[in-house]
Amino acid sequence: MSPVDSSRTEAAALAGELPGILLEARRLAAAAPGAHGRRRAGQGEAFWQYRDHRPEDGAKLVDWRRSARGERLYVREREREAAQTALFWLDPSPGFDWRSGPSLPSKRRRALVLSLALATLLNRGGERVGALGATTRAGQRAVDLLAMDLVHPQAPDPHPPINRACFVLASDFYAPVETWRTRLARMSANGSSGALLMICDPAEEDFPFEGRTLFHEVGSGRSEVLLGRAETARAQFAERLETHRRTLREMARALGFLTILHRTDKPAAPAFALLAASLSEQGL
User: Are residues 141 and 74 in the same domain?
Assistant: First the structure.
């Protein structure tokens, strides 16, 4: 089976699983800490809260009616009403469909659940969501339509829109760091930021292979490596993987992107809570 045929087969399988995937995503979003507390100050008409007056606010911002009730000065804050945009991308590489055992989800499936859970949370907060390169939406059907966009393979080298957005990129990030540096620099050029959702299978970290083992590139028969004693490569493999990830994290941080690592043999909830909280701190 060619890489293209493999991607189509996986897309069809995920499309058939969408009702269950969406249900899992909505449960994650509902259980997340702060799931209903995404309101924040900004330009708008609706009252949000009073806060203490700060010296840099000046006299014009003082709410004198509220301040007259006591000895402290208060500022009346309005709720931010302008919707922001979150764009999602799932790595279309055949290797992202891989799993080391039948009891584990594929990396793509877990990435889809986490992405849709975050999109559900953002959509409830009034934000616009969409797949990178597709239409962005808000409202009741936004997440369902996003799910349909995400189950189909996306462009391998995503080009960001002109307008500022928050990007959530899900991959195993095994492509060279310089490839990702070029992509992220292009996305951050207009002040955009976001998160790298690094999904890995436990076998890719633990390297449990022993004895004579043939490794071949997923989705292609062109690249193969035969190790007579696979266990002897375990330490070197772990070191190279950690070096690659550390370099990627440092580069991403410098360009305004946080990095979150998640293994498919672990529950999705902790990774989702960390992702949602981290993006909230970035202002989304």
Answer: no
